[in-house]
């Protein structure tokens, strides 16, 4: 039997990738999109209800980011031109809006219109007498539940940036569901005359029943309430960030944050829970970070950048991130998506052969990793007796443990934190823009499973390439392929990056690091001879 599908309106079929906020709740589809092909009529829609058409007071050129159902409401996160700032110029603000799931529209002329639509500004800023705002929201996580300080909270993490023509900056802020709800219970904002300032509405002017609430039947609401919410959908107070400041801030002309995923409440051997943040950028990077103070207090933020990984070529922006856990993958994977490729990375590298001592393991400040004092190895969360602090050494807050024997630590910098570096070679061809098959930090889904074997091969190939270029030859017989100058330069860069970690280079190559400018011969893996140029670069 064939069941006919209900007709779809343009409002349920967004016209381009920017209109990406949609959510199915029960049998209802909620969308943040446009109602016409020109893109001039943005609406929040659930058949048959929608926001007011061509009304900048409701939505003013919004760019929808995400939506989610929480309790009796569906929440939308977006950025739009701020109508309350229009007297001073043009600015884009980040918003959170909500509608009631049980809204049935109003009577008469309010038929097929939301009676519960409210919105408020999201405040992601560096505090001070003159706060510095990150005004443009780019992405959010789903709702994260956990313990922060001594209390439980439900959080939504978001990526925020400065405007494209401003000082380039990005930040991650968190917002609690309770703070959002409190804001919607606060004062409304209004502009009494065309050129007057926007001010809070006095409580005596707010009708009863209060606009924006869930009611048994919205069609019975009085006209006074419906007229008020039509012209007063904006709240006066902004939603404050949960930790009262951004968790991670980056100012860089080279990249901006684009996406975020969170692996929530990873418990350390001491029992403290931490949210591990994975942040994507528009130049192919993934940044792994944690707020080292979140388990103890919400009044202070201590950001720790654990890793910064170049997953894709710099011209490929990260479009989506997802933490995936499966019974076949006990350690989980981070799925990283661009417009053209998908990769899966390990959530941690606690087992890395570069982590050889207690001090190096603790210095990672990675909630996934701790030093097993019995086996004398760096172990990952889930190891036997993990919850017993007597058997493991770890310090997320400081990266130093008093019981660790003194040892030489690799220095930390912007790209090498705790001994794990963004310089793990990502073998992509800068000429073709395609990623190779040997990805030491992860695997290309359904293509590569054995990372370490191909890492060895890549190293051997790159060293031979450097030797060949130094000798002025045009072909490397050991690998059996023609070499041109750009490929050699890539290989030299690869060796330089690997040589920054001389202990690792020694263990992989089987020789002492050379102190000369040239790189001596290295015993190769026979399997490397099977690799083609495309596999290595």
From TrEMBL:
<dbReference type="InterPro" id="IPR001627">
    <property type="entry name" value="Semap_dom"/>
</dbReference>
<keyword id="KW-0217">Developmental protein</keyword>
<dbReference type="GO" id="GO:0045499">
    <property type="term" value="F:chemorepellent activity"/>
</dbReference>
<dbReference type="GO" id="GO:0071526">
    <property type="term" value="P:semaphorin-plexin signaling pathway"/>
</dbReference>
<keyword id="KW-0325">Glycoprotein</keyword>
<dbReference type="InterPro" id="IPR036352">
    <property type="entry name" value="Semap_dom_sf"/>
</dbReference>
<dbReference type="GO" id="GO:0007411">
    <property type="term" value="P:axon guidance"/>
</dbReference>
<keyword id="KW-0524">Neurogenesis</keyword>
<dbReference type="Pfam" id="PF01437">
    <property type="entry name" value="PSI"/>
</dbReference>
<keyword id="KW-0221">Differentiation</keyword>
<protein>
    <recommendedName>
        <fullName>Semaphorin-1A</fullName>
    </recommendedName>
</protein>
<dbReference type="GO" id="GO:0030215">
    <property type="term" value="F:semaphorin receptor binding"/>
</dbReference>
<keyword id="KW-1015">Disulfide bond</keyword>
<dbReference type="InterPro" id="IPR002165">
    <property type="entry name" value="Plexin_repeat"/>
</dbReference>
<comment type="similarity">
    <text>Belongs to the semaphorin family.</text>
</comment>
<dbReference type="Pfam" id="PF01403">
    <property type="entry name" value="Sema"/>
</dbReference>
<dbReference type="InterPro" id="IPR016201">
    <property type="entry name" value="PSI"/>
</dbReference>
<keyword id="KW-0472">Membrane</keyword>
<dbReference type="GO" id="GO:0005886">
    <property type="term" value="C:plasma membrane"/>
</dbReference>
<dbReference type="GO" id="GO:0030335">
    <property type="term" value="P:positive regulation of cell migration"/>
</dbReference>
<feature type="domain" description="Sema">
    <location>
        <begin position="1"/>
        <end position="347"/>
    </location>
</feature>
<dbReference type="InterPro" id="IPR027231">
    <property type="entry name" value="Semaphorin"/>
</dbReference>
<keyword id="KW-1133">Transmembrane helix</keyword>
<keyword id="KW-0812">Transmembrane</keyword>
<dbReference type="InterPro" id="IPR015943">
    <property type="entry name" value="WD40/YVTN_repeat-like_dom_sf"/>
</dbReference>
């Amino acid at each position: 039997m064939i069941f006919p599908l209900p007709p779809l309106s343009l409002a349920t079929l967004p016209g381009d990738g920017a209109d990406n906020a949609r959510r199915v709740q029960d049998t209802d589809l909620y969308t943040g999109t446009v109602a016409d092909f020109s893109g001039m009529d943005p609406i929040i829609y659930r058949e048959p209800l929608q926001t007011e058409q061509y009304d900048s007071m409701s939505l003013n050129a919004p760019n929808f980011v995400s939506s989610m159902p929480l309790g009796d409401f569906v929440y939308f996160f977006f950025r739009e031109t701020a109508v309350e700032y229009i007297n001073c110029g043009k600015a884009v603000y980040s918003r959170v809006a909500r509608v009631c799931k049980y809204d049935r529209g109003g009577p008469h002329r309010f038929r097929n219109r939301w009676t519960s639509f409210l919105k408020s500004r999201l405040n992601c800023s560096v505090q001070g007498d003159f706060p510095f705002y990150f005004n443009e929201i780019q992405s959010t996580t789903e709702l994260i539940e956990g313990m922060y300080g001594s209390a439980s909270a439900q959080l939504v993490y978001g990526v925020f940036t400065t405007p494209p023509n401003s000082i380039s900056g990005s930040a991650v802020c968190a917002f609690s569901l309770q703070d959002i709800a409190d804001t919607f219970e606060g004062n409304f904002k209004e502009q009494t005359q065309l050129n007057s300032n926007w001010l809070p509405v006095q409580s005596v002017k707010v009708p009863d029943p209060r606009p924006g609430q869930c009611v048994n039947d919205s069609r019975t609401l009085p006209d006074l309430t419906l007229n008020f919410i039509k012209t007063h959908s904006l709240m006066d107070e902004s939603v404050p960030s949960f930790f009262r400041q951004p968790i991670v801030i980056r100012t860089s002309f080279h990249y901006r944050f684009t996406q975020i995923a969170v692996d929530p409440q990873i418990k350390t051997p001491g029992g403290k829970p931490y949210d591990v943040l994975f942040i994507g950028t528009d130049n192919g990077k993934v940044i792994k970070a944690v707020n080292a103070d979140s388990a103890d207090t919400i009044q202070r933020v201590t950001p720790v950048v654990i890793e910064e990984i170049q997953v894709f070529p710099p011209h490929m922006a990260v479009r989506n991130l997802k933490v995936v856990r499966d019974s076949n993958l006990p350690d989980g994977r981070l799925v990283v998506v661009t417009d053209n490729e998908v990769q899966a990375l390990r959530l941690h590298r606690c087992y890395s052969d570069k982590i050889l001592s207690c001090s190096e393991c603790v210095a990672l400040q990675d909630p996934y990793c701790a030093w097993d004092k019995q086996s004398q190895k760096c172990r990952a969360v889930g190891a036997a007796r993990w919850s017993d602090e007597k058997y493991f050494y770890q310090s997320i807050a400081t990266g130093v443990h008093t019981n660790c024997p003194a040892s030489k630590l690799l220095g930390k910098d912007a790209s090498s934190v705790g001994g794990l570096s963004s310089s793990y070679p990502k073998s992509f061809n800068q000429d073709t823009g395609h990623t190779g098959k040997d990805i030491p930090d992860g695997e290309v889904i359904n293509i590569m499973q054995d990372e370490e074997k191909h890492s060895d091969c890549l190293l051997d190939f790159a060293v031979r390439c450097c030797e060949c270029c130094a000798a002025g030859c045009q072909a490397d017989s050991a690998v059996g392929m023609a070499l041109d100058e750009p490929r050699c330069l890539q290989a030299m860069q690869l060796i330089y990056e690997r040589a920054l970690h001389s202990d690792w280079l020694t263990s992989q190559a089987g020789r002492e690091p050379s102190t000369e400018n040239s790189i001596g011969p290295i015993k190769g893996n026979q399997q490397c001879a099977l690799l083609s140029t495309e596999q290595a670069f």
